[in-house]
Amino acid sequence: MKVDGLIITVEGLDAIDGTPVLDIKPVMREFQPRGDIKQPAWSSELMRDYYKSAGR
Question: What is the tally of structural domains in the chain?
């Protein structure tokens, strides 16, 4: 929602308030069930079989 120096304000993050952020990843439709987002076609192709292979 906003960035102020080293403070990033987010909404809908699945984490405990105050948890350190070690890495920031792009939003992908496969991880974002609420609302529409725009993303390149290659990212959907990349994630198409994610849940099939995640249970190995």
Answer: 1
Give the residue from 9, 45, 13 showing the smallest Cα distance to 29: 45
The answer to whether residues 27 and 37 touch, using CB atoms and an 8 Å cutoff, is yes
Name the residue among 17, 16, 7, 13 with its Cα closest to residue 34. 13
Q: What does pTM read for this prediction?
A: 0.34
Write out pLDDT tens, residues 1-55.
899 998 888 877 777 877 887 887 776 767 766 777 788 999 889 888 877 765 5
Report the DSSP beta bridge partners of residue 2. 9
Q: Is residue 42 part of a domain?
A: yes
Where in the sequence is the domain holding 51, given as residue range(s)?
Answer: 25-56
